[in-house]
Design goal:
250 residues, alpha/beta, Rossmann fold, eight-stranded mixed β-sheet, 10 helices, 16% strand, globular, binds adenosine-5'-triphosphate, binds magnesium ion
Length: 250
């Protein structure tokens, strides 16, 4: 079982900053350590499942079924998880192709809390890929509140700076603990002035480099594979340190 009770990591950040890629790579890193990981994909505007792996059979289960079930039970959750052929340690729970925010009845915060509490019993670790649109995603907002750790991901562009400037005030209540967020600058290219953006974000703890092979994996739906080539080393090293900081030593 995980050490120190740290189990649930929420990955949140500005639109297009690399939340989904980072969440997948973190889940894969834990799975490579033979931990059971549940990757929760919150985006209900661009459902993530059809964009990250090639399913042999059409996916006909959804997190929407779970959040709107009369009772959220382990059985309902497990029935709606997608198992992942390539890696038996990873399960996925997200919206399926074609769904949108109107596909299901509205759910309230208590449902999202119930789901996250139960996930702690189902998996060794839970990695949550949040939606940037917090005002539209109750599950993402709850994930920020109840996580054991939050990775806050930004990128080197003014849109990212603008996003945090407008959204962080929405998280000013102490329950969100924004001071504890682990700030990450993602997708950083060699010629980009990382320092300027680090300052704009009030300092960052980690920098995840831009790696072309990752972008290619994203396009070919192979992000759950290891990253090929030398450039992957620097990326993987940062990832391992983040996992260690978030979940502690075994
Ligand atoms: N370290 C990286 N190196 C190269 N490309 C990356 C890296 N991280 C992310 N990308 C690319 O950046 C783009 C955005 O990444 P991703 O989809 O993970 O962002 P996101 O924050 O989840 O976006 P959204 O807000 O739409 O959910 C993708 O094209 C992805 O391939
Ligand atoms: Mg995403």
């Amino acid at each position: 079982m995980p050490n120190k009770g740290k189990q649930l990591l929420t990955v949140w950040g500005s639109p297009g900053s690399g939340k989904t890629v980072s969440a997948i790579k973190l889940a894969k890193e834990l799975a490579d350590q033979k931990k059971n990981v549940l990757l929760l994909l919150c985006d209900d505007i661009c459902p993530t499942l059809p964009t990250i792996f090639k399913s042999k059979t059409p996916i006909d289960v959804s997190i929407g079924e779970v959040l709107t079930a009369p009772n959220i039970t382990q059985e309902v959750i497990l029935r709606n998880c997608v198992s992942f052929d390539k890696n038996p340690y990873i399960s996925l729970l997200g919206y399926k192709a074609g769904e949108n925010p109107f596909s299901y009845a509205e759910y309230k915060k208590d449902r999202a809390v119930d789901l996250l509490v139960l996930l702690r019993h189902i998996a060794d670790y839970v990695v949550i890929d949040c939606s940037s649109m917090l005002t539209e995603s109750i599950i993402s907002t709850v994930a920020l509140e109840v996580a054991d750790g939050v990775l806050r991901i930004g990128s080197c562009d003014l849109k990212s700076v603008s996003y945090f400037r407008s959204v962080l005030p929405l998280l000013s209540e102490p329950k969100f603990n924004v001071d504890k967020h682990i700030k990450v600058l993602s997708n950083v290219r060699p010629l980009q002035d990382g320092e300027e953006y680090k300052n704009a974000f009030g300092g960052v703890s980690y920098t995840l480099p831009y790696v072309q092979a990752i972008d290619e994996q994203n396009s070919s739906l192979t992000l759950f594979d290891s990253i090929p080539g030398k450039a992957a080393k620097a990326y993987d090293m940062v990832l391992k340190v983040i996992v260690k900081e978030v979940f502690g030593d075994e």
